[in-house]
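Exercise: predict the fold of this chain.
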Amino acid sequence: MTDNQIVDSSFTSVINAPIDTIDIPQWCFTLPESEYRGCSPAHIAAGFTTAPDGRRMSINVEIIGGSLMVQHYVETLGDKDHLILDSDSDVYTPSGRTSIHVTWELSVKEVAKGKCEFTNRVRSYATEEMMTFLARQGIPFDQFRAQRQPASIAHNQGETPLFAASIERAALRKDR
């Protein structure tokens, strides 16, 4: 863990679909808002657009640990079986607004014919802005990290099987 890393959380779930029918970037960048909201009670809204440089971007709004987060996930790797997104996310807390860097990595590997293992990995890092924000409030970073980790880990653990089920439905849809 780097000095400013808050969490590195990874969970897996089974997808009962052939690997050649799975396209994680296609799923991510066409995910209807209602489907996103169905993957966690903390999910509020989702959409997609492009970054200023033309790369695909997923916009997610959720509440984690009592803080509203607006994530601007830009695609940094977009293979059918492996998607990496990076976001400098806005975080709205009772004490004010700050930012956090989040790397969201989704991958799938075949474990048997017609069966895959989905991995949902989330890593978050304090930005300079967040470090200043915490220091102004007299909150030591290690204390903040220790308090933030359980909520972030629980969120990832809860959404992983629901994301896997959503990806499975997309993979098995006849109109894909």
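Check your answer against the key: The chain has four helices and seven strands.
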